[in-house]
C-alpha cells in the first residue's frame, strides 16, 4: 500500500476536480450558505498519526454525525434500557420520516433517525436543564478529541429551532405515544444544539478514535466505552448510519460510518483508523456526495473495508 499521506492527498486533489458535487442542504438556512467547493479529509491511523488534506481544519456543522456521541452518552447513562425506547433496525426511510412511527407506536427504528435521536435527547435530559446536557456533550466531545476549540454554533441551532417543523411533529407524535417523557421544546433544545456541534475533519476523526479500538482511545489509552458497546455502536453505524442509503454505502465503502446534512461523515476502520470527510453537497439520500466517493476510494486503495479486499 502506498504511503497513507500520499493516498489522502491524492484523494483530496481528485475531489477538487469532481464535477458532480451534489446539492447543499438549505432547509437549515446557515447550511445553505456554505461553499459547495469545500472538501476536507482527515485520517487518524492506529499509531495516532493524523493524515489530512484539503479543508481538514475548517469547522463545519456536524449535524447528525453528533448522534453517535449523543447515543454513547445515553448508553452510559441508561445502559440497555435505552433499547426499550428505540430500536436497532435500519428503517429504509428518510432521516426525517414519520411513517413508521404510527404502526410502531412511537418507537423509532434506530437511534440515528431524527426520531431516534430525539428520544435519545429525552433520555439525556433526565432531570436536567437542556443547557446542562449540552454542556456535558461539549465537554465529552472536547475530551474525546483532546481539543478545546470545539464549539456549538448557536446560529445553526436557532435556525433549526425556528424552522424545524418536521422535528417538532416527530417529537409531538412520540410524546403522544408516551415515548417522550419531557416537554417537547426542552427535548428539541437538546437535539438542535447537539446537531449544531461544529468541528473540523481533524477534530471529528480525533473524537472518533474510541470506536476504532475496542472502546479505548488508542492514543491516550483511556477507556471510553466497553469493547462490546464500541462493537455495537459500530454495528449500528454500518446498518443505519446512512438512513435509506445505508445499503448503498455498505456496498460502496463497507465501513461503519455516520453522515450529517452538513456534509460530514465519520467512518471507522476497526483496528486501523478513524476517518472524517467533509463536502457540503449531498446526494438524494442526504449524505455527502463527495464524502462518500472519497471514502470509496480510500478503502479501494487501503483495503480497509470490513469486508476486506
Ligand atoms: O434534524 C435535522 O434535520 C438535522 N439537524 C440533522 C439531519 C441530518 O444531519 C441527517 N443526516 N444526513
Walk me through this protein's architecture:
This protein is an alpha+beta fold. Strand 2 (40-45) and strand 3 form a beta hairpin. Helix 5 crosses helix 8 (165-176), helix 6 (130-145) crosses helix 10 (201-207) and helix 8 packs across helix 9 (184-195). The chain has a 5-stranded antiparallel sheet with strand order 3-2-9-8-7, sandwiched between helices. A 3-stranded antiparallel sheet has the order 4-6-5. The protein has helices at residues 4-16, 29-32, 67-78, 99-103, 114-125, 130-145, 154-163, 165-176, 184-195, 201-207, 227-240, 246-252, 289-302, and strands spanning 23-24, 40-45, 50-54, 60-61, 151-152, 197-199, 257-259, 264-269, 273-278, 281-282. 45% of the residues lie in helices and 12% in strands. The longest helix has 16 residues, at 130-145. The relative contact order is 0.19. It is built from 13 helices and 10 strands. It folds into 2 domains: 4-60 and 199-302, DD-peptidase/beta-lactamase superfamily (Beta-lactamase); 65-195, 3-Layer(aba) Sandwich (Beta-lactamase). 6-diazenyl-5-OXO-L-norleucine is lined by residues 63-64, 95-96, 114, 160, 167, 195, 259-261, 286-287. It comes from Sphingomonas panacis. Belongs to the glutaminase family. This is Glutaminase. GO terms for molecular function: glutaminase activity. Substrate binds at residues 64, 114, 160, 167, 191, 243, 261.
